[in-house]
Write a structure and sequence with these properties.
Elements (H helix, E strand, L loop, with lengths): L1 H29 L5 H4 L16 H9 L4 H6 L1 H6 L3 H7 L10
Length: 101
């Protein structure tokens, strides 16, 4: 009987740890702020009229903020700063995103 209680406590403790970890992951995902003007600074071209491939730092920034790409696509000011954002996303081999309307 004592062994069963020990196993029950271990299972309960493992369940609590998993739930806490899942909640922490969800909270971290919600804590992401989407400010393309600062987060995508490496992607801003000094001369937007001259096409150029994205830098390694730009690709890293895009991959790091994938969760924000739909919001960035709707930002009209960001489109002025980075007119080739869609091409940069493709060049950095970031998977296609489906944005809600």
């Amino acid at each position: 009987m004592i062994k069963t209680k020990g196993a029950d406590v271990a299972i309960c403790l493992a369940t609590v740890v998993l739930v806490v970890a899942a909640l922490a992951h969800e909270a971290a995902a919600k804590a992401v702020t989407c400010d393309g003007r600062t987060q995508l600074f490496p992607c801003i071209h000094p001369k937007p009229q001259v096409p150029m491939p994205p830098s390694v730092m730009c690709c890293q920034a895009l991959k790091l903020h994938q969760i924000c790409l739909c919001q960035y696509a709707r930002d009209t000011y960001l489109k002025i700063l980075i007119p080739d954002l869609d091409e940069d996303i493709k060049a950095c081999t970031i998977p296609n995103r489906i944005c809600p309307l």
